[in-house]
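Chapter summary example.
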Amino acid sequence: MKFCPNVACSHRQRTGTPAEYDVERSDCADCGAELVDGPAYYAPPSGEPAARTLPKGFTSRILVTVVALAVAIAGPRLVPLPGIDTSALPSKVSLVNVSVFALGLLPVIVAAQLVEIVAWLVPALRPLRHAGPERREKLGRATVLLAMVFALVQAWGISVWLGAWQFGASPLVTVASLLAGTSLLVLLAAWVTRRGLGNGYALLFFVPWLVTEGEILEGLLREPLSAAEWAPILAIPAVLVVTTLACARWPARRDEHTHARAAGAEPYRRGAGSVGAAPTPLRLPASGIAPLLILATVGSLLLTSSKIGLIPYEAVVWYFKRDGASLVVQLVLTAALVVVFGWGFQTPTAREALWRRVREFSPKSRPLDEGDSEVLASLGRSILPLCIIVGLPLFVDAGPGASSHFLPLVTMLVLDFVAEVRARMQIEEELVSVWPEHRVFAADMVAALLRSEGIPVHLRGILYRTMARFAHPFVPIEIMVPASRAEDATRIVRHILLGELPPAEVRKDEPEGPAAPKKKKRKTKPAEDEATA
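The structure predicted for these 533 residues follows.
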């Protein structure tokens, strides 16, 4: 029997005893320490355990993240537009709406979503989405141009609105200030992504929104509400968070029951040890929040159609009712959309093609013999969580539960943030991003292969991306490995995802053999030539 001697091992921290292994393995599957023989490590350590030090650069990452979030939260509440007299503002106008940061990151986020949807719908642009960061640069340039257009239009609209109220400075100064505020937030988001913790765009977009929701709840506390009125405001957000946590926990829980542990750790979390990679289970929800976007789009189309007289306004009122047949229609539509989008996001053909490359690289990896059953099962398990996320917000008007996608995305964002902090604490070496991937199943498969090759991996943003899918392309799944293994990991990732063959190894230490002597051609007689012909 082998044991892990590391007193700071994550398994020891959870259970109080070291991890033990009854298979041949050289390192601990939880912390990577070299294993030792003998049961002596069940006894408590003789002295006090050494104090754990923070990894190199971890403090600076925390500082970068805190500074950026402070600017994103306090800036809209402290820095008004030039010429704005905050004391003269009407009571219904919030300072956030007339600050230098009034546009926020919304122009960039909307532009990124539209470009991703167009690239998904247009066959000529579809290959750019999953062809690596080099080819996605075209989509990035289109996102920047479209975001500039959106920002200019919105800034001009705010300047016209302020002019109607006789507030603010000249339109040119107002537009320039708003563009400067958005540009600063974009720089801070990129700074956090590179030098901080988590994805900067998601953090700087949702954390200020979460603060705003807290302010709304604080305002509700001042109003005399009955227990019946408070119940949905508090209970619905709690159910949404629990539902999201169940989706995030599902793959690891399923592995605990259906996969035999290899080298003492779940294959889903740690790879399959030295015997090759194991296929990773599909994550829930299989469709992400895509059905929610379609339902919102249908409501917008109905409202627009009623305004131009194509349909009666009563049809719009019926669609937005919170009980009766309208709710049943929305839930049935949600279930159908879960199947459509879930199948499109992880078709068995795409999974089999990718896993074929994994087995070409690592022949010991387990075959992917699931066929359509795994995808169909994940679709069935995704219907109930999505129906809960769609249906519950219809019964509350205020609070964080009023938006069908806010709390699920924020919950996944928090879980990803905590996972990255834990990964950086457990892996002493600096983690670097070697590849941004936008397909959830592809990132999981590559991570399983890298772990089976002995390369520690952290998938930054995997849970958030599972919930958002193609809706939020500004948060890719970043495959992060220790800096010393970045070159090996990049070579493996490019081989698996792009089909690039690894470079042939040339051994220069072997001397070249003598060249073979050239053979002289023998002249034949004309008679022999004729016979041969």
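To summarize the output: Residues 133-164 form the longest helix (32 residues).
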